[in-house]
Amino acid sequence: MSVCSPPPSHAHLPNAVVSSSASEARALQFLKNPKPRSELANSLKLVALHHSPSRNRRFHLNCAGSETISVAEKNGDFTEAKAMVYEPKIDGFGGGNDGGDGGDSFGGGGRGEGDDGGKEEGGEGEEFGPLLKFDEVMKESEARGVKLPLDMVEAAKTTGLREVFLLRYLDLQGSVWPLGFLMKYCSMLRNRMLADPSFLFKVGTEIVIDSCCATFAEVQKRGKDFWAEFELYAADLLVGIVVDIALVGMLAPYARIGKPSVSRGLLGSVQQACASLPSSVFEAERPGCKFTVQQRTATYFYKGVLYGSVGFVCGLIGQGIANMIMNAKRSVNKSEGDIPVPPLVKSAALWGVFLAVSSNTRYQIINGLEGLVEASPLAKRVPPVAMAFTIGVRFANNIYGGMQFVDWAKLSGVQ
User: Fold this and answer.
1) H runs (alpha helix) in 88-229
2) Basic and acidic residues bias located where (predicted)?
3) DSSP class of 55
4) DSSP one-letter string for 107-134
5) Is residue 111 pLDDT above 80, yes or no?
6) How far apart are the C-alpha atoms of 104 and 97, rounded to whole Å?
7) Quick one: how far is CA 197 from the chain centroid?
């Protein structure tokens, strides 16, 4: 924060004439008793005129963001000083809205303590509520008889908490088991539920649709041998559920509560860069959470790497279990009609590439479409509209994704 102090020769104005306005009175008081640099709140621009033979001399004090104030002196001389303009500087805790420092994103995490967190542009403050201070947060939680998690308490002390996030947590932590328990002790689920209350509905929709489609496909494929090969079906189903949770959870928006610990050096820089990225390419901007085109582009490739890693690991586990069961059965009862055992590493690699490229692209688009529908006036008036859209678009995506995976498997020689 830059300041400028008046020249020593201007610090005494015994017979100054000042207008009746409060702002001019404050300016004159400042000239009589200069404040220390740390107490100044605005950048100042001071202009004094040349020495003049006239008995009345005038200088101007211009405060950034306010009107120019004129003060006249009837006695005494002034020596002109050229206009000195000091541009304001922003320190590391003020004014930033990029959310990169891990503050309470969606809740003013990049804003300074002196910032008026409850006044966001574009109606964002109305949508997410004011930024509550520590005393207000503790008063509300104590009135409900709820003890907040440590990270939420620390966030309330440093950056404040959005009212909507506090109220959502107070409501959700009292839910039936196991949701209430997970809201208290699983921050990953809690933060996603605070940002998107329909998160669990989307996860459940994905699991139910994928499981039903997989079951139907398995019954059609195995026919009368379905129950004889039930172990293979169960292994595929369990791995599929894990993949479904990862597919939805990795792209879901989440509330960034508090300031995460960041390591030093190269690892710390990578962690900070990843933390500043949106959760998905089309994540909506919120108070304290703004994203550039470069960040959104980087998110696509970053999530592709995560999806690919999940696909490869789940492919190893799922295909490994299936191969073990197939080999165990064939060691007991081997027949000429048995299909070859799929290659383990090649199958896992196919899963990794498929999730990184196909699934990543399709689910990014789905998240963007769901966000548009949820933000529409119709969905806000009639919430079941958004829920119906989620069911329809995810059902169509599962059908298309399953057909595409079969094509990829045949082309790669895995099946």
Assistant:
1) 124-128, 134-144, 150-158, 163-172, 179-185, 187-195, 199-222
2) 112-122
3) S
4) TTTTS-TTS-TT--GGGHHHHH--EE-H
5) no
6) 11
7) 15
The pLDDT score that the predictor gives to residue 391 is 96
Distance in angstroms (rounded) separating the CA atoms of residues 269 and 78: 54
For 169-186, what is the mean pLDDT? 89
Residues 329, 229: Cα–Cα separation, whole Å:
10
What are the sequence ranges of the domains in the chain? Answer: 8-85, 93-195, 197-251+292-412
CB neighbours of residue 76 within 10 Å: 14
Please give the distance of CA 383 from its chain centroid, rounded to a whole number.
Answer: 23
Where b means 16+ CB within 10 Å and e means fewer, 210-225 reads beebbeeebeeeeeee
Torsion over CA of 284, 286, 288 and 291, rounded to 10 degrees? 20
Query: Phi/psi of residue 80, each to 5°?
Result: -65, 135
CB-based burial label for 81 (10 Å; 0-12, 13-18, 19+): middle
Tell if the pTM clears 0.70, that is, is over it.
Answer: no
Residue whose pair of structure tokens reads 């996603």 in the numeric block: 192
Question: Mean pLDDT across the stretch 162-171?
Answer: 90
Cβ pair 313, 288 in contact under 8 A: no
Structural contact between residues 153 and 178, judged by C-beta atoms closer than 8 angstroms:
no
Distance, CA of 19 to CA of 278 (rounded, Å): 52
For residues 22-41, average pLDDT: 52
User: What percentage of the chain exceeds 70 in pLDDT?
Assistant: 66
Q: How far apart are CA 390 and CA 241, in angstroms?
A: 18
CA distances from 291 to 102, 278, 282, 294 (A): 14, 7, 10, 8
Q: Which residues pair with 84 in a beta bridge?
A: 46
What is the helix (H) or strand (E) element at residue 85, kind and residue range? strand 81-85
What separation in angstroms does the CA of 381 have from each of 194, 377, 393, 400, 411? 20, 6, 20, 31, 47
58, 70 contact by CB (below 8 A): yes
Measure the CA angle with vertex 319, ends 314 and 321; round to 5°. 100
pLDDT: which is higher, 387 or 338: 387
- Which pair of tokens denotes residue 80? 């002109």
Q: What is the band of 128 on the pLDDT scale with cuts at 50, 70, 90? A: low
Cα-based angle 203, 206, 209 (whole degrees, multiple of 5): 145
